[in-house]
Write a structure and sequence with these properties.
The protein is an all-alpha fold. It has four helices and no strands.
Length: 105
C-alpha cells in the first residue's frame, strides 16, 4: 500500500509541475485530492505494518522516514483545507515523492 501511496505522490508531483507552469491560475483541488488519497493509503500501510509488528512502526530508518512523510502530508492536508493555501501542495508533493522513494530503497 505504501508503494501505491508513493505512486499517488508522484502523480501529484507531476501535476504540480503543470500547475507551476500555469502560474496557479486555477484552484488545484485535484492535487489536494491526490495527496488525500495518498494519505489514506499511507495511513493504511502504517496501520498494517504496526499491527503485523505489534508495536508502533518507528524503530528503523524505513519506518521513521514513512512516519515523517505521513506527518508532512497530514500537516499539509490541515493547512491546505483552507483554499488559499492549497498552492503549498505544489511544493510539498515533490518532497513527499523524494522521501517516499528514499524509504522504498
Amino acid at each position: 500500500m505504501f508503494l501505491c501511496a508513493v505512486g499517488l505522490y508522484g502523480v501529484s508531483a507531476v501535476y504540480s509541475i503543470f500547475l507551476l507552469r500555469q502560474g496557479f491560475r486555477e484552484d488545484n483541488r485535484l492535487n489536494y485530492l491526490l495527496l488525500l488519497g495518498g494519505f489514506v493509503l499511507h495511513t493504511l500501510a502504517m496501520f498494517q505494518r504496526g499491527f503485523s509488528l505489534q508495536r508502533c512502526p518507528i524503530s528503523n530508518l524505513y519506518e521513521a522516514t514513512t512516519f515523517i512523510t505521513w506527518t508532512i502530508v497530514a500537516a499539509y492536508l490541515l493547512i491546505g483545507a483552507w483554499g488559499r493555501l492549497r498552492f503549498l501542495g505544489a511544493f510539498v508533493s515533490p518532497v513527499l515523492l523524494g522521501l517516499g522513494v528514499f524509504a522504498l530503497m
